[in-house]
From TrEMBL:
<dbReference type="InterPro" id="IPR036694">
    <property type="entry name" value="Dodecin-like_sf"/>
</dbReference>
<dbReference type="Pfam" id="PF07311">
    <property type="entry name" value="Dodecin"/>
</dbReference>
<dbReference type="InterPro" id="IPR009923">
    <property type="entry name" value="Dodecin"/>
</dbReference>
<dbReference type="InterPro" id="IPR025543">
    <property type="entry name" value="Dodecin-like"/>
</dbReference>
<protein>
    <recommendedName>
        <fullName>Dodecin domain-containing protein</fullName>
    </recommendedName>
</protein>
Length: 66
């Protein structure tokens, strides 16, 4: 039987929501092993002068506990 733990993180990118998600998982995987899935909970953007300046995602990352 496997046990999974869930970690919630926020990540940001100047490129896209997809890039923000990729960067969040990449960074989390530096300290968290056995990542099995990521669920995007929320997407948002920061705006300046009528233009999107950055993309943000809230991720719930699940990983297997040893």
């Amino acid at each position: 039987m496997s046990v999974l733990k869930v970690l919630e993180i926020m990540s940001e990118s100047k490129e896209s929501w997809e890039d923000a998600a990729e960067e969040g998982i990449k960074k989390a995987s530096q300290t968290v092993s056995n990542i099995k899935s990521a669920n995007i909970q929320n997407q948002s953007a920061t705006v300046s002068d009528g233009k999107i300046t950055s993309y943000r995602v809230n991720l719930k990352i699940s990983f297997e506990v040893d």
